[in-house]
Design a protein that fits this description.
- The strands form two sheets. The protein has a two-stranded antiparallel sheet with strand order 1-2. A two-stranded antiparallel sheet has the order 3-4.
- Helices cover 58% and strands 8% of the residues.
- The protein contains six helices and four strands.
- With 146 residues, it is mainly alpha-helical.
- The protein has one domain.
- The radius of gyration is 20 Å and the shape is elongated.
- The relative contact order is 0.11.
- It binds zinc ion.
- The site of zinc ion has 8 residues, from loops.
- The site of zinc ion (ZN) has 8 residues, from loops.
Length: 146
């Protein structure tokens, strides 16, 4: 799970990611996987397509899936099979932050959560909530005050 979040948010220089996760892949492959994860978040169809592509690529290298305590698992050394398993298992809780100025992929703690937990995004969410409230109730609120 964390590997997918880290890869989805990795900068164009992936050297820290590679060292931290001991991933033996080129910078170009990793930035391509980053784009694929982000595209996979756009719709269930895009996600299914990405999972199929990652899994096909993995299977061709001789990788297999297995179960650990009832949970589907992949060889942790095989990036594409790990991406396939994590996205198949956790797609529902992985989101792109709805703050247009943020661009972070995060794990939701509630199904309705739309913003990541950075302070700027919490403030943005509060402002957006107030703006919507005023748009919906402002006229009546002002009229009632007269
Ligand atoms: Zn955010």
């Amino acid at each position: 799970m964390q590997l997918v979040l880290d890869l989805a948010n990795v900068s164009d220089d992936t050297s820290y990611f590679r060292k931290h996760w001991l991933v033996d892949a080129t910078n170009q492959t990793l930035t391509q996987r980053r784009a694929e994860i982000r595209r996979a978040l756009e719709s269930p169809e895009a996600c299914a397509e990405a999972i199929s592509r990652w899994w096909t690529c993995s299977f061709a290298r001789g990788s297999f899936l297995y179960f650990v305590r009832g949970q589907l698992a992949a060889n942790p050394g095989d990036l594409e099979s790990a991406l396939a398993v994590v996205m198949a298992t956790f797609r529902d809780v992985i989101s792109l932050c709805a703050n247009p100025g943020c661009d972070v992929v995060f794990r939701r703690s509630r199904s309705t959560q739309r913003f990541c937990d950075k302070a700027a995004c919490t403030h943005y969410a509060a402002r957006e909530h107030k703006r919507k409230w005023w748009k919906k109730h402002g006229k009546k609120w002002r009229a009632d005050r007269r």
